[in-house]
Design brief:
120 residues, mainly beta, four-stranded antiparallel beta sheet, 49% strand, globular
Length: 120
């Protein structure tokens, strides 16, 4: 499975961006969006399990929305962006087991990342 992100860029505080992740195949995977800011550990922001249930980190709840679309695409709609959202954003996928993982080390497949900058 190959993943390719796009849609990053630079916005001002309060702005919006939509990240897109194109998957090379249509298979039943657990998926998620993660981010990593300079000098910080990679953290999860949104997850979508095989039942379609979504989960969000508290820091983005109410502002970010994870969804899927035609063409094996995964999206992350980010509204009301804040300077602390500035990071490299990655989509990830894993076949999972009885349940889907949320910790980044448990995801097998990763995209190359797309940079999001938010200025105050």
């Amino acid at each position: 499975l190959q993943l390719v992100e796009s849609g990053g860029g630079s916005v001002q505080t309060g702005g919006s961006l939509r990240l897109s992740c194109a998957a090379s195949e249509d298979t039943d995977y657990c998926v998620g969006w993660f981010r990593q800011a300079p000098t910080k550990a990679r953290e999860g922001v949104a997850w979508l399990d095989k039942t379609g249930t979504t989960q969000y980190a508290n820091s983005v709840k109410g502002r970010f929305t994870i969804s899927t679309g035609a063409g094996n695409r995964l999206y992350l709609q980010m509204n009301n962006l804040k300077p602390e959202d500035r990071a490299m954003y990655y989509c990830a996928a894993d076949r999972g087991g009885w349940s889907c993982p949320t910790y980044y080390r448990d995801f097998r497949y990763w995209g190359q990342g797309t940079q999001v900058n938010v200025s105050s």
